[in-house]
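User: Can you recover a sequence for this backbone? Please restate the input before giving your answer.

Assistant: Of course. Working from this structure:
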């Protein structure tokens, strides 16, 4: 088994183990993906990645982090995504959409404006979260139980739109300090109702959303979830790898097929804990303890490093982020370096 071995997730077959990681581009208008997204995602498909994952895509307008993020809550957005999906499929690659809600980390300016909070005059909105716990200097309002039920429906509606747009798989973004993470981490969740307190209560929103999404997508379609495997906070309230293994077992029983194991979201990680492949052990631990397929992230930048993760059975897919920004053709270049076979677009073969 190597980086270019095919893999099956339900009915979805990937030609290799290389995934374009979701990375926000902050280039949309009214949540609609445009030419930038077509070229950004399409060029990585041309470059040989087996699975293309969109940037986090909001299920509602209030789910955006900035006014330049993408969404899939209306027909215009859905139709624009279909154009991207069709092009990726033409390159013999597969594509998944990452559905998301920013929760208390929303209503921010563009990164070029340092992502400061938007004012009402600038189009800002009141952000809501599991609890009124400060996040990045902002204290969000607490979501009511009725609003939580509505959000579950919005995720399900977005999943239906994703299926109609032709996506091959769906990933729920439940990490990096966004809304689902704001519920399951006790660092943020201070609720005392059925969505707070115990481990079972804090994961309830994510588990129930998984149930709703699983109901509306085809049985043959794999369902993916990205989590923050640890909070990187050494307190009793911090989310731990043991918590993640326990969560992954439950998600598996609810029809989740794959976990991407990332980390953090509420605090900066100390530099001594960041090194090439630093988050790979999270994927390995979840894989070994649950039997779920997992994806590895965290400064994976070379063909040799990525191949060893697969060949040593540390994870099933490698989720390549920044290296894909530096090199859209990472997959093709990796195959050449590793002396393994891969498809090269006929338009480019004369260069090889």
């Amino acid at each position: 088994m190597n980086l270019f071995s095919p893999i099956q997730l339900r009915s979805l077959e990937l030609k290799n183990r290389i995934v374009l990681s979701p990375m926000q581009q902050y280039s949309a208008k009214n949540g609609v993906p445009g030419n930038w997204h077509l070229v950004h995602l399409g060029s990585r498909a041309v470059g040989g990645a087996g699975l293309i994952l969109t940037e986090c895509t909001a299920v509602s307008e209030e789910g955006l982090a900035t006014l330049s993020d993408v969404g899939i809550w209306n027909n215009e957005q859905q139709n624009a995504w279909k154009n991207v999906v069709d092009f990726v499929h033409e390159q013999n690659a597969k594509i998944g959409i990452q559905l998301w809600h920013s929760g208390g980390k929303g209503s921010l300016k563009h990164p070029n404006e340092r992502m400061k909070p938007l004012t009402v005059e600038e189009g800002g909105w009141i952000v809501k979260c599991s609890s009124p716990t400060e996040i990045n200097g902002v204290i969000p309002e607490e979501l009511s139980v009725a609003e939580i039920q509505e959000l579950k429906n919005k995720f399900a509606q977005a999943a239906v739109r994703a299926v109609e747009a032709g996506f091959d798989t769906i990933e729920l973004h439940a990490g990096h300090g966004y809304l689902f993470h704001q519920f399951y981490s006790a660092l943020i969740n201070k609720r005392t109702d059925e969505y707070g307190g115990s481990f079972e209560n804090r994961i309830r929103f994510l588990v129930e959303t998984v149930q709703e999404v699983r109901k509306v997508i085809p049985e043959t379609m794999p369902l993916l979830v990205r989590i923050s495997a640890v909070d990187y906070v050494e307190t009793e309230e911090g989310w731990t790898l043991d918590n993640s293994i326990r969560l992954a077992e439950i998600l598996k029983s609810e029809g989740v097929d794959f976990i991407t194991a990332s980390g953090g979201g509420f605090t900066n990680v100390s530099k001594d804990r960041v090194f090439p492949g630093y988050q790979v052990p999270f994927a390995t631990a979840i894989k070994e303890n649950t039997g779920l397929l997992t994806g590895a992230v965290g400064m994976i930048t070379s063909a040799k490093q990525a191949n060893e993760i697969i060949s040593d059975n540390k994870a099933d897919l490698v989720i390549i982020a920044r290296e894909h920004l530096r090199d859209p053709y990472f997959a093709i270049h990796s195959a050449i370096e590793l002396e393994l076979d891969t498809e090269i677009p006929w338009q480019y073969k004369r260069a090889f």
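That completes the design. The two ends are 25 Å apart (CA to CA).
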